[in-house]
Amino acid sequence: MTAALEVSGLSYALPGGGPERRALVQDVSFTVGEGETLVLLGRSGSGKTTTLKLINRLLEPTAGEVRVTGEAAAKLEVTRLRRRIGYVIQEIGLFPHFTVERNVGLVPTLEGWPPARVAARVREMLALVGLDADTFGARYPHELSGGQRQRVGVARALAADPPLLLLDEPFGALDPITRVELQREFRALEGRLGKGMVFVTHDVREGLLLGTRIGLMHQGRLVFLGTPDEFKSSEHPEARAFMAAA
Amino acid sequence: MSVLAFYARNAQEVLGLIWEHMYLVLISTGTAILIGVPLGIALTRRPAWRGSVLGLANVFQTVPSLALFGFLIPLPFLGGIGARTAIVALVLYALLPIVRNTYTGIAGVDPAVREAGRGMGMTDGQLLRLVELPLSLGVILAGVRVATVVGVGTATIAAAIGAGGLGVYIFRGVATVDNTLILAGALPAALMAIAADGLLGLAERRLAWRRT
């Protein structure tokens, strides 16, 4: 069985030469299997978000390789690659002039699904994230609460049934109560979906709750990779700093 | 002699000049939209060009209109006496608000929306057509409105180089110190500007997406 995602020797440096040329991501390697959630944990600027963007090629790696379900990402047409990867960001980025239905149905529509199939899929996805399609389908994003918007964001990312999901601090901008609610629901969802996921966060508690494995990033490098239990007992100073803050 | 009496006596000529005036404005604004919107879009894709293109458009805007008409007369193909020269000058004037508003409108689209669109696998064309243009339509139309209203006013000066329009009465009135004649040209021009402003404002409110 091929893994949902294989990353090997991934590096990214800002364009422009010279000794001050900054490496934002250096030699990062990991594998994410089906049904597995790898949490990339790290401080701001540690390279977590950059790593995500290297996977869906919003940034082009300067070295290393990314394989999605066994296929080399660099060899795929970039729009095709991205339609196979669900992407959820903190700001959500719902299209403000699209209804909830059109937002969720976007990638299936781009992929040329017939409208009836898109509509059925949209209902299914909204139900999956706990939103009633009859109530919410025709609304616009500004008519939703922050938590509802983020649910729509997750539904949109899942709509075309991608084997891999990238989530960049999806619950970071929510109020604490809604955040905990969505974390719990997301945890229940993970098991049911059976997708590979990479979840970026700087919240260690969130990481330990949602990750089947934790990858700790520090100054552009992956300095720890292991289960949440291994993370808790890790001797790495950065891991200890995170545990002390929890 | 009152303006109304003047119109009654010269109805045929007045209607002809109004039509000429509208023709000058419609052709020049239309051309400016066809050039300006794609140019504005191009600037969002090549931000390095922004300074020089907007700078050049700015320069045209600062040249006094009568001088610009004068400069164009000796040019081959574009210049000469008549409507063609006037249209070229009016297009140059209309370009700046249209290019600038197209650029500003698209550049003002929420970066998170753009990143989400790209991250989900939209091509650049799809992003432009489905997201960026619909979201910036209000700002672009506002630019067209400014260009049109300014164009109606500037087109009165086109009469100075034989392009016709309502400026004919104004220049004739100035030359003969005849206020009735000046008013006969200025009134319909002002009404035309107000009408254009109202109609395009309506279109802006009807077509533009807004958050309310």
Strand content of chain B: under 5%
Assess the beta-strand content of chain A as a share of residues: 15-25%
**Quick one: how many beta strands of chain B?**
0
Instruction: Please estimate the helix content of chain B.
Output: over 70%
Mean pLDDT across every amino acid position of chain A: 92
What's the shape of chain A? globular
Low-confidence stretches of chain B: none
- Average per-residue pLDDT of chain B, rounded, comes to 92
Number of strands of chain A: 10
Derived from helix and strand composition plus strand pairing, the structural class of chain A reads alpha/beta
Proportion of helical residues of chain A? 25-40%
Strand order of the largest sheet of chain A: 6-7-8-3-9-10
Q: N-to-C terminal Cα separation of chain A, in Å?
A: 36 Å
H-E order of chain A: EEEHEEHEHHHHHEHEHEEHH
What integer value in Å does the Rg of chain A equal? 18 Å
Please state the oligomeric state of the protein chains shown. Answer: heterodimer
Structural class of chain B: mainly alpha
| Largest sheet entry of chain B | none
Biggest interface, residues from each chain: A-B, 23 and 20 residues
Low-confidence stretches of chain A: none
What gyration radius of chain B follows from the Cα positions, in whole Å? Answer: 20 Å
